[in-house]
């Protein structure tokens, strides 16, 4: 062993003692994630409280890990969950299977499912890893109403928001 | 005559008169279509099948084909594209499907069809199996030049009756549905209203879309404009698993595909999400009736039996299989040979075979519950191998006697109607008007109970038996008989309307002799077909069961122990079973009979099990398990074998195919058959399913078996006609049970969708009868017979022959055979 090399190594250590630490004291201190971080899914709502999800199952079809399960049913104006005729009566994601690839987001025609910033997922059994519709849906925004809601006939008869003429 | 033409450089020879679109399909070139359907006349409405057609040029003066320098014919292409679906092929044509001009033309048509299409594929039930989706991907422009803002928005939720929903925006106005109702079914209850973009499909009937075949329009709709209330938003097509099955509701034996999916709502169990037709051009083509399509919910009824019940201290209590089977076996053992087994044609051949063998070994008798005779005659005089109702035409005759096919076997009705329209001689004989009358060339009307007498009258003319001279009928009968005799092929459908057991026996014999007199026994499209009350009644006869000629009640009276499977003698004909020391009932539900039982054994429904049904045309077909069984139930053949094992009788109890092997080794007509033979398929026309759903609709292609039609076997001894039984002494009124498609039977009631269409419990009688019986103004009538008194609502109809009243079967009145009753105005 050469003493010079030992000294060189110790020098690096010495300098590092005056650097800012890169570690975070998780969970007391949390590192903010990037804007496009893909964490736990959320099912979004419109401002008025209606669910964006229309139960089309395209996320389920796109999912490479077969983590999503959707069952749909028909909306009525008496009991409306989402605009249009169809809504997801059952929506489950098995977080143990999910690989957070974001294909479900890409497939969604209404931007209802979004991989948000929550990465703190832990479970003590497999059943807990299945996130149901109620767990995934975001809270109603102020001014909105919870679903199901009663709506006037003809007001929300389209599932997919009006598109602009793509010029 | 055949025609040779060239499509995209490939030569193809097809029969003359074939449409270009079909010729291309046969040759393997895809010409897209929306409005064209191979089962219907072409209309050329959607214009998506545009192709370039070049015809050999002719000299105008001489009419001779023009030749170029090398001696080949000169081909002249027209200036415009033409629709391949309306053009019958011509000799020497050169057709360009893939030319730039043709591609451009189709491209523009698809772009135009999409101008106001909502493109809401994510929520559309057709999405994933949609011809418009597929053909837009294959032939569409990808980008539209039309303004999105100019899209017209129309109603998206228009119920055409409670079974079928219309989405006006999605409709591309191909008229497949209206043409199906008009041309194929002859129920023009839907039609076009308004024009252009405002055009919509409306229903003229009340209740809306009042047709027994309405569900088929959703299969052939090339977009998601028509959807069924049953499957609406139920699942996406790509999520479904499918299993082949056979419809359990009537003797036609329509091939089905059951689409299943595991559902959280159903507690994580597989359930049947929809019932779809499976192509079998010999049986149901690509159609099924609405009963077959919508009446499947009973299989997942929460009231299904899932555990055996045993009577303890006078009450039925849950018990283990072991306990229940031991109790059943003991009961049978104690009864010695005073045993009776009662089964119905709802069971598969495997069940019925095991039951018959068990009772044969025990020394008892297994009988059928429904009083209709003739199964043994169908075995000998049935239709020949290769019979196909859709091959009937000008030289063929069909006699339909004592049956209302539209209610009893709708697909037979449909196919016979079409045969009549193709020129087949249709003779309909019944005591009352039925829906088939409109298409018949000969309508024979007789008095109730005279079905056999009419058949013997026909036989007199056909067979010229002098002994039968006393049955000679009127001119109409003579001319019908002459037409029947003149025809090359002759098929007879006989039913049981207005007849008791003895009546059907005399009728069946007369009809069998008519077939014999024609002298073409065993040939295709010649033979006898029984319109049985249940799907597998013919199979039950083949397995060796038959009704007791004395009637079910009398048969049950003499027994000490009874084993009743899939039958309800108490609910159907008020049998008194109190005298039995042991009553074992094996069923899906706690029926009226099961309530009196000592042991109740839970069986499996048709969606959960394997087996075979033998159709009225004696085609043996397989059903496959589609969903897992409710825990605790067993297939019927297995339960019977388990009971037998406790009586030290060895029956096959491991697998349905092995039971069938035993059937094949013992039952003569089935000899040599195996499940593999029943699973053989061959190419069928038109192609449907998979990538071809733009052509034939979303009916499933048949990959699981066309079944095997059994050949009639030669009669061992000559058949004699039988004099018809004397008509029952008339009292005030003859109460006539008739079959309705939507009755209120236990297997139909769980299908809530059909509730509004189910026949109500009321009798229908002629207005003059209401007056004669002093019932005018009354709400109900009090009728009595054999010590029974019932109060029935009634409604007038001039269609009902005076002296009788019609009452639907299985709607709450326990009555199977025509019965004279006395009528009183209730106080």
What best-fitting shape of chain A do the alpha-carbon axes yield?
elongated
Low-confidence stretches of chain B: none
Distance between the termini of chain B: 75 Å
Number of domains of chain B: 5
Task: Strand order, main sheet of chain A: write it out.
Answer: 2-3-5
Q: Figure out the total of helices of chain B.
A: 22
> What is the makeup of the main sheet of chain A?
3 strands, antiparallel
| Alpha-beta content class of chain A | alpha+beta
Helix percent band of chain B: 10-25%
What's the story with the biggest beta sheet of chain B? Answer: 8 strands, mixed
H/E topology pattern of chain A: HEHEEHEEH
Largest interchain contact? A-B, 28 and 22 residues
Label the CATH architecture of the domain at 25-136 in chain A.
2-Layer Sandwich
CATH third-tier fold name of the largest domain in chain B? Rossmann fold
Indicate the low-confidence ranges of chain A by residue numbers.
none
Q: Under the CATH scheme, which architecture of the largest domain in chain B would be assigned?
A: 3-Layer(aba) Sandwich
Strand runs of chain A, count: 5
Shape of chain B: globular
Characterization of the model:
The complex is a heterodimer of chains A (167) and B (827). Chain A is an alpha+beta fold and 167 residues long. Chain A has a domain at 25-136: Alpha-Beta Plaits, CATH 3.30.70. Chain A has helices spanning 3-16, 58-62, 103-107, 133-136; strands spanning 41-43, 68-74, 86-94, 113-115, 130-131. A three-stranded antiparallel β-sheet of chain A has the order 2-3-5. A two-stranded antiparallel ribbon of chain A has the order 1-4. Chain A is elongated and about 85 Å long. The mean pLDDT of chain A is 92. With 827 residues, chain B is α/β, with parallel strands linked by helices. Chain B folds into five domains: 2-98, Roll (Ubiquitin-like (UB roll)); 148-300, Alpha-Beta Plaits, CATH 3.30.70; 309-370 and 539-709, 3-Layer(aba) Sandwich (Rossmann fold), CATH 3.40.50; 375-531, Dimethylsulfoxide Reductase, domain 2 (3-Layer(aba) Sandwich), CATH 3.40.228; 733-824, Barwin-like endoglucanases, CATH 2.40.40. Helices cover 24% and strands 21% of the residues of chain B. In chain B, the strands form eight sheets. An eight-stranded mixed β-sheet of chain B has the order 16-15-27-26-25-17-18-24. In chain B, strands 1, 2, 3, 4, 5 and 6 form a six-stranded mixed β-sheet that branches. Chain B has a six-stranded mixed beta barrel with strand order 31-35-32-34-33-36. Chain B starts with a strand and ends with a strand. The A-B interface holds A 54-58, 60-61, 69, 71-74, 84-86, 89-90, 92, 109-110, 157-160, 163-166 and B 118-120, 122-123, 127, 147-149, 153, 156-157, 232-236, 238-239, 263-265.
């Amino acid at each position: 062993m050469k003493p010079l090399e030992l000294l060189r190594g110790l020098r690096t250590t010495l300098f590092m003692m005056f650097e800012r630490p890169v570690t975070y004291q998780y969970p007391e201190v949390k590192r903010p994630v990037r804007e496009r971080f893909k964490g736990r899914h959320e099912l979004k709502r419109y401002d008025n409280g209606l669910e964006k999800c229309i139960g089309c199952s395209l996320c389920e079809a796109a999912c490479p890990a077969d983590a999503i399960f959707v069952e749909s049913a028909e909306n009525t104006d008496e009991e409306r969950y989402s605009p249009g005729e169809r809504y997801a009566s059952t929506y489950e994601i098995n977080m143990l299977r999910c690989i957070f690839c974001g294909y479900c987001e890409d497939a969604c025609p209404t931007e209802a499912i979004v991989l948000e910033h929550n990465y703190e997922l832990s479970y003590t059994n497999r059943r807990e890893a299945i996130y149901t519709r109620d767990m995934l849906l975001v809270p109603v925004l102020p001014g909105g109403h919870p679903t199901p809601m009663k709506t006037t006939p003809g007001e929300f008869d389209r599932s997919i928001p009006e598109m602009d003429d793509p010029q | 005559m055949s025609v040779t033409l060239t499509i995209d450089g490939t030569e193809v020879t097809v029969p003359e008169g074939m449409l270009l679109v079909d010729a291309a399909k046969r040759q393997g070139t895809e010409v897209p279509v929306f409005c064209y359907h191979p089962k219907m006349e072409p209309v050329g409405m959607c214009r998506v099948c545009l192709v370039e057609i070049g015809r050999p040029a002719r000299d105008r003066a001489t009419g001779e084909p023009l030749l170029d320098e090398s001696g080949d014919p000169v081909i002249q292409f027209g200036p415009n594209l033409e629709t391949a679906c309306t053009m019958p092929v011509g000799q020497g044509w050169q057709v360009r499907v893939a030319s730039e001009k043709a591609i451009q033309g189709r491209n523009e048509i698809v772009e135009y069809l999409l101008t106001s299409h909502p493109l809401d594929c994510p929520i559309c039930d057709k999405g994933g199996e949609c011809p418009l989706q597929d053909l837009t991907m294959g032939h569409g422009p990808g980008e539209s030049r039309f303004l999105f803002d100019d899209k017209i928005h129309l109603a998206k939720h228009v119920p055409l009756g409670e079974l079928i929903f219309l989405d006006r925006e999605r409709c591309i106005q191909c008229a497949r549905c209206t043409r199906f109702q008009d041309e194929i079914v002859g129920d023009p209850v839907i039609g076009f209203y308004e024009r252009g973009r405002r055009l919509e499909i409306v229903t003229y009937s009340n209740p809306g879309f009042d047709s027994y075949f309405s569900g088929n329009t959703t299969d052939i709709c090339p977009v998601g404009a028509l959807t069924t209330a049953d499957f609406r938003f139920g699942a996406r097509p790509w999520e479904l698993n499918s299993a082949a099955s056979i419809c359990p509701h009537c003797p036609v034996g329509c091939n089905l595909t059951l689409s299943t999916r595991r559902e959280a709502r159903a507690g994580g169990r597989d359930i049947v999400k929809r019932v779809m037709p499976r192509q079998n051009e010999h049986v149901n083509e690509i159609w099924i009736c609405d009963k077959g399509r919508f009446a499947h919910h009973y299989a997942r009824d929460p009231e299904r039996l899932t555990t055996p019940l045993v009577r303890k201290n006078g009450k039925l209590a849950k018990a283990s299989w072991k306990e229940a089977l031991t109790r059943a076996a003991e009961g049978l053992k104690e009864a010695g040979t005073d045993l009776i087994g009662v089964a119905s044609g709802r069971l598969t051949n495997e069940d019925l075979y095991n039951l018959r063998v068990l009772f044969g070994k025990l020394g008892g008798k297994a009988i059928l519950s429904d009083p209709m005779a003739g199964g043994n005659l169908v075995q000998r005089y049935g239709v020949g191998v290769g019979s196909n109702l859709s091959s009937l035409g000008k030289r063929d005759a069909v006699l339909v006697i004592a049956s209302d096919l539209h209610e009893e076997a709708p697909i037979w009705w449909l196919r016979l109607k079409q045969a009549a329209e193709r020129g087949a001689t249709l003779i309909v004989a019944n005591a009352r008007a039925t829906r088939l009358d409109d298409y018949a060339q000969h309508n024979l009307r007789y008095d109730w109970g005279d079905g056999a007498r009419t058949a013997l009258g026909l036989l007199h003319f056909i067979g010229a038996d002098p002994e039968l001279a006393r049955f000679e009928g009127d001119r109409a009968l003579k001319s019908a008989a002459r037409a029947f005799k003149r025809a090359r092929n002759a098929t007879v459908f006989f039913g049981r309307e207005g007849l008791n057991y003895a009546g059907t026996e005399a009728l069946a014999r007369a009809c069998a002799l008519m077939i014999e007199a024609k002298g073409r026994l065993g040939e295709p499209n010649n033979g006898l077909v029984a319109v049985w009350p249940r799907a597998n009644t013919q199979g039950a006869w083949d397995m060796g069961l038959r009704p007791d000629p004395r009637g079910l009640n009398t048969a049950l009276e003499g027994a000490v122990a009874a084993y009743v499977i899939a039958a309800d003698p108490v609910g159907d004909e008020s049998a008194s079973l109190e005298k039995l020391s042991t009553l074992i009932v094996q069923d899906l539900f706690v029926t009226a009979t099961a309530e009196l039982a000592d042991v109740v054994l839970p069986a499996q429904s048709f969606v959960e099990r394997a087996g075979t049904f033998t159709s009225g045309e004696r085609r043996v077909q397989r059903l496959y398990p589609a969903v897992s069984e409710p825990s605790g139930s067993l297939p019927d053949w297995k339960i019977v074998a388990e009971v037998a094992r406790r009586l030290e009788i060895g029956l096959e109890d491991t697998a349905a195919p092995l039971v069938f092997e035993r059937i094949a080794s013992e039952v003569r007509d089935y000899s040599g058959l195996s499940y593999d033979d029943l699973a053989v398929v061959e190419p069928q026309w038109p192609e449907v399913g998979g990538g071809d759903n733009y052509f034939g609709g979303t009916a499933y292609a048949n990959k699981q078996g066309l079944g095997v039609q059994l050949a009639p076997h030669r009669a061992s001894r000559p058949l004699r006609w039988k004099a018809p039984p004397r008509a029952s002494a008339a009292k005030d009124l003859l109460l006539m049970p008739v079959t309705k498609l939507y009755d209120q039977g236990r297997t139909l009631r769980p299908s809530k969708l059909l509730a509004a269409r189910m026949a109500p419990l009321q009798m229908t009688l002629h207005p003059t009868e209401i007056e004669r019986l002093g019932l005018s103004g009354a709400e109900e009538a009090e009728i009595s017979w054999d010590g029974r008194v019932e109060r029935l609502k009634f409604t007038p109809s001039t269609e009902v022959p005076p002296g009788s009243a019609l009452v639907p079967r299985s709607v709450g009145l326990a009555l199977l055979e025509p019965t004279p009753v006395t009528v009183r105005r209730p106080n």
